[in-house]
Amino acid sequence: MSRKVKGLSLEIVAILMTVVVFWIPFYFVIVNALKDRKESALLNLAWPSTMHLWDNLKEVVMARNYMLLRAFYNSTLLTVLSIVVLVLVCAMAGYVMQRRTDRATPWLNFLVLSGLIIPPAIVPTIWVLNGIGLFKTLPGLILVEVALGFPFGVLLYKGFMSTIPREVDEAAVVDGCSGFKLFYTIILPLLQPVTATIIVTSSVGIFNDFTNPLYFFPGAKNATVQLTLYNFQSQFVTQWNLLFMNILLITLPPLILFIFFNKKIVAGMTAGSVKG
User: Fold this and answer.
1) Is 276 in a helix, a strand, or coil?
2) Alpha carbons 42 and 89: distance in angstroms, whole number
3) Which UniProt key words apply to this protein (predicted)?
């Protein structure tokens, strides 16, 4: 009975922490996005006396010659292209690292783990991108996002790959499959749980990324959704109602994506560890 009480207490504490950490700030954003400029300046949790949803929404979308729409396009393009490259590169790397074992394997594992531990260096990365002519370009930013997500993706694919019997590879080779045909037609479709996990988690991270576009993709035409927060905040005057409306608009797409695919995320992250 005591164990049940302790378990119930832990669940209640976890729920309360979730409410405090996530739902209260989210409610704060919503109510202030519905207020006018004067009421939102109070920065409280009070419900607005009058609704200004459409007025704030219209002003946010039209600000600086529809910058928010252009930012949504840039962020969506960046996210889609980065995810495609990330999935293909991580899946191939994870497949090779799991199937082949030689003297270089420990070093490769060490380098992949180092990518999770060592923080990225901004100035040297800018120097490298500038040297290859990709600084302030979308391909350069895509390479940065792929490099940052590579270690996590490889570890997930490698862990799940151990659940696929080697006999599948051997049977395909006997049937005359080449290396690339074996991977793309047989192995990659079997990796759907992990692929779904990487797509959702990495999409949220890339779409909400603030620092990398700021450093590696500067310029008003290159603005992503997170950088549009600067539109309504300055040193002297802050339009809190428009700022919170902007935050609400750029928060909803990742939130909806996460809600609909949360089961696949958990399944993909636990499949390799449970079966392996």
Assistant:
1) coil
2) 49
3) Cell membrane, Membrane, Transmembrane, Transmembrane helix, Transport
